[in-house]
Task: inverse folding
């Protein structure tokens, strides 16, 4: 059933979305400020729709920011770009949207649909196409289960719009949209995967905004009550589609190598155990892709690899990784519809050029 | 009045267009083959319209290939891309074109509108927006005199389309379209500067396809009759908008430095006199921008700098420049509407980052 989001929910949602971003998806902090400001006018609330509430013929248009997280934290949106993308896509389709939706529930893209909702009055569907964050636009459950991303609309900071139509080829759509994103300075705002309510129910990962809110609240309360954040996280995940939580490593960040290249933030980070030998290496393309402890794979995409501040439990994004941080690295099982062979072909390890087969985190690490 | 182009005109037109391309615009050879093949079906002729024959409310949609000439000679179009761009723009505008037109009369873009005409039956307006070739899309008389290039449509080799709308900002349109061109492998096909017949008459350089045909025929006949190609060229230019022809240099190509960078072919070429001292340096970005003899400017953009084979009179494109070629370099005055202050602001030397003021070739070099 539908629920209402107020300004007071945003900090918790941003925290949970930063965790579900698995290091990427862009820091939700800036997005939260934009949504907070937009909510000062109008009703001051945003309606969250359960996917089951959608009519089969409703038109849902997801919106997002795309680009390198390293750029996203420096290039602040005006706030109207994603609305402009939505309107451009509506004009192309000759039909108004009945709701908007996240394409990914991790990072700043948990916030962009709320920003559009606050500015347009549209409801937001509580579901997404990644169940986390991924760096590329074809890496969506929508794509895996047959929804074309095209036509895609881009709204730029000067009021310019771009419409890209690559038919059913969502990887080509990503390639061309990334070219425009680079030309726009490394960040762009998009509307894509316009689909029917029936397709949302068939292809989306459900209730991931609600999950983000629940995770963020659990981490905050653990900190306020001086409880262990990982235990709180595991408790929050119980009964959800993400119910296996494993500690992969505890230690200090001793090295970060990060480059913004071809529109992505790519790199590695190394953590050393607090005491004694033992090392964890993280490899990322916007998001963490694989965690290797002493050379052995402990968790690999699309399972979630999340870095938390060891004391406060705050999620740390890849662009926020710094030498000397004390961290706990957690692996979380991804929902079953993201572990099918057709899903792994699109966003499993080999889709990122890694020479690794997917193995579930619960098989790699004991509780 | 309207005239007809047959397959037998194409070789002459290609030769003349290569000259008007001032080294760039892409080698018209490939374009000519595509048009020849397309003309084998249908009526076998293409109608060329004088701009004066257009109704003021007619819709004219120019088409072109964009990219680095170094790539254009290697990446052969299928032939339908420019038609797809035209159709995508018609759909966006909600109206069918009454005619197509070149955006530049130099190089392969003299041929692309003929290809579209042969495949669609549309007539081609005998006029263009550069009166030569330029490397960037805002460098058009259309733009100088107030016609927006947007919306621009791109047709790709896999049937994909992109629509870019930057309002009145034609330089931003170029920037974004170049990003897509790079992602498409260095070449794309576009439809842009859709305009009324009245705007064609007000802003286009008239009768430049006819001029290309005349130049190509003059150079061929001079070769067949063993006459001097430069004298034949000067005679062909008499009474046209391009009536000052000057020999800048005769010599051998001794050095070529050429890179394909950011979607353009950029570089320098040096020629040494056949006998004794004396050197000419050519600087190009797709097209030749400036010719300096012994350090002194002899001809500068937007005047035309054309390199011809010293013996055959065949124009040599920048990507065709080779060590050891024997060449004559000719400067040609550009039409008056391309030398106004507002035109020079868009495609004069400083628009290319050159620290030179424009001076007419007839003031720099005596006959």
Result:
């Amino acid at each position: 059933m539908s629920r209402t989001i107020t300004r007071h929910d945003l900090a918790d949602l941003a925290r949970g979305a930063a965790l579900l971003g698995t290091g990427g998806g862009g820091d939700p902090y800036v997005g939260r400020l934009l949504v907070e400001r937009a909510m000062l006018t109008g009703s001051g609330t945003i309606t969250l729709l359960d996917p089951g509430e959608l009519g089969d013929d409703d038109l849902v248009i997801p919106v997002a920011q795309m680009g390198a997280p390293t750029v996203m934290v420096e290039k602040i949106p005006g706030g109207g770009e994603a609305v402009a993308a939505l309107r451009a896509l509506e004009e192309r389709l000759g039909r108004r949207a009945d709701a908007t939706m996240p394409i990914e529930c991790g990072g700043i893209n948990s916030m962009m649909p709320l920003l559009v909702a606050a500015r347009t009055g549209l409801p937001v569907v509580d579901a997404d196409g990644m169940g986390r964050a991924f760096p590329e636009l074809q890496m969506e459950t929508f794509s895996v289960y047959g929804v074309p991303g095209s036509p895609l609309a881009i709204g730029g900071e000067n009021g310019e719009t771009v419409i890209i139509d690559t038919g059913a080829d969502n990887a080509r759509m990503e390639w061309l949209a990334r070219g425009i994103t680079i030309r726009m300075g490394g960040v762009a705002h998009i509307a894509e995967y316009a689909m029917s309510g029936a397709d949302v129910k068939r292809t989306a990962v459900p209730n991931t905004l609600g999950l983000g809110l629940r995770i963020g609240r659990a981490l905050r309360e653990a900190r306020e009550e001086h409880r262990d954040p990982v235990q709180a996280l595991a408790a929050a995940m119980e009964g959800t589609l993400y119910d296996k939580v494993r500690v992969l490593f505890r230690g200090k960040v001793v090295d970060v190598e990060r480059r913004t290249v071809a529109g992505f933030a790519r790199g590695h980070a190394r953590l050393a155990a607090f005491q004694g030998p033992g090392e964890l290496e993280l490899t990322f393309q916007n998001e963490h892709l694989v965690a290797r402890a002493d050379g052995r794979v402990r968790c690999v995409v699309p399972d979630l690899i999340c870095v938390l501040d060891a004391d406060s439990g705050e999620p740390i994004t890849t662009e926020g990784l710094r030498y000397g941080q004390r961290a706990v690295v957690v692996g979380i099982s991804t929902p079953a519809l993201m572990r099918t062979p057709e899903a792994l072909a699109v966003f499993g390890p080999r889709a990122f050029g890694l020479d690794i087969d997917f193995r579930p985190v619960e098989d790699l690490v004991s509780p």
